[in-house]
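User: I've been trying to design a sequence by hand for this structure and keep getting stuck. Would you show me what you'd pick, starting by listing the structure so we're on the same page?

Assistant: Good idea, let's start from the same input. This is the structure you sent:
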């Protein structure tokens, strides 16, 4: 009898231990299942896919003044473009649409060049598209990996209008590149546009797309040297009070893309910390009256601050092509409170070895070096 009772007690104890063991194993099994599910969610799908840029804008960093539309991203302004980070295997293809600028005198033949950076390294090739749509192979990677690619328009809006439509590659987007701590907008004329910086003085057609590159100007170089984001709003021949076109910067600046539409207003998508104005050369050439120039200069500064706020610092630079009304822009700055009011003037080195007597790349580099030093010592130190 005792043996039977002992056997029954042992059996009951075994059943109890087995039940406890089963209960403790279930949570572990559930935890493993949850881990497996999380791993599946974290896995990125590697597929060869065409991405319409307006649909993946959250994966892109927009550079300069851009407009997102159902057709793509409008990048008309000099040095405007996009930057993205992605895991990529093989080729990267960019589809673009380039169109002509229509003027009262007729239509210009569109011609656009693009600069491409891969992992911070500027590629030697200039990617060219004439009027119409085209697909460019902008990079090719033998092995899969994560890369950062930047695409910028070299050509000013006067010469062509551009829409970045899609990207096609095998892989997936990573998080968009972060915004820099400093953003500088440059407002100017042919100097800021890079007119003639790819040819020598005396060369034919210095102002066409072939001979200009906004990504090799004092403006873009200054932003790069300061580790800043950039925006260029420029048009060759434009002035403050007088210029070669039949409109002034007071009309060009508020427009989203003046060469695409004179009536569509710019919807502010960023606020620069510093605005650099490089205007006056064409006013001087066209014989602008000093008092009119000063009045218009003060109005332009007010327009900029009405757009971006009273705290934005403004630097009026001059002298890259010699006399550029700097005496009168300085008077406008002084009349509005000068440095005490966040307004500055800076005289840059003169150099005119590029096409049409404009600065060469060497001249732009020297000007950028001086402007960087000025910004560091006078503006950012305050």
């Amino acid at each position: 009898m005792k043996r039977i009772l002992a056997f029954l007690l042992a059996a009951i104890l075994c059943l109890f231990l087995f039940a406890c063991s089963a209960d403790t194993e279930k949570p572990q099994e559930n935890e493993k299942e949850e881990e497996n599910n999380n791993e599946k969610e974290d896995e990125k799908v590697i597929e060869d896919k065409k991405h319409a840029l307006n649909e993946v804008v959250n994966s892109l960093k927009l550079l300069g003044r851009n407009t997102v539309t159902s057709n793509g991203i409008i990048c008309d302004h000099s040095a405007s473009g996009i930057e993205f980070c992605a895991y990529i295997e093989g080729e990267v293809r960019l589809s673009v649409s380039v169109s002509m600028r229509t003027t009262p005198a007729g239509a210009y033949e569109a011609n656009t060049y693009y600069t491409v950076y891969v992992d911070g390294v500027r590629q030697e090739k200039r990617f060219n598209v004439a009027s119409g749509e085209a697909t460019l192979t902008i990079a090719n990677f033998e092995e899969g990996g994560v890369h950062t690619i930047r695409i910028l328009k070299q050509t000013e809006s006067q010469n062509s209008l551009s829409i970045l439509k899609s990207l096609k590659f095998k892989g997936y987007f990573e998080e968009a590149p972060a915004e820099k701590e400093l953003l500088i907008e440059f407002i100017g004329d042919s100097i800021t546009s890079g007119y003639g910086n790819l040819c020598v003085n005396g060369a034919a057609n210095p102002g066409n797309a072939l001979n200009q590159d906004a990504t090799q100007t004092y403006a873009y170089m200054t932003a790069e040297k300061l580790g800043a984001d950039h925006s260029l709003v420029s048009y060759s021949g434009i002035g403050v009070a007088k210029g070669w076109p039949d409109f002034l910067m007071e009309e060009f600046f508020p427009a989203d893309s003046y060469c695409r539409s004179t009536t569509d207003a710019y919807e502010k998508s960023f606020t620069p910390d510093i605005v650099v104005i490089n205007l006056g050369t064409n006013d001087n050439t066209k014989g602008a009256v000093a008092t009119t120039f000063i009045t218009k200069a003060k109005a332009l500064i007010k327009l900029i601050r009405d757009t971006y706020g009273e705290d934005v610092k403004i630097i009026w630079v001059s002298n890259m092509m010699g006399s550029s009304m700097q005496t009168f822009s300085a008077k406008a700055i002084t009349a509005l409170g000068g440095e005490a009011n966040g307004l500055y003037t800076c005289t840059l080195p003169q150099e005119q070895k590029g096409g049409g007597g404009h600065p060469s790349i060497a001249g732009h580099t020297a000007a950028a070096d001086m402007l960087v030093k000025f910004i560091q010592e006078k503006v950012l130190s305050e």
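That's my pick for every position. To get oriented when you compare it with your attempt: Residues 2-42 form the longest helix (41 residues). The chain has two domains: 48-173, 183-379.
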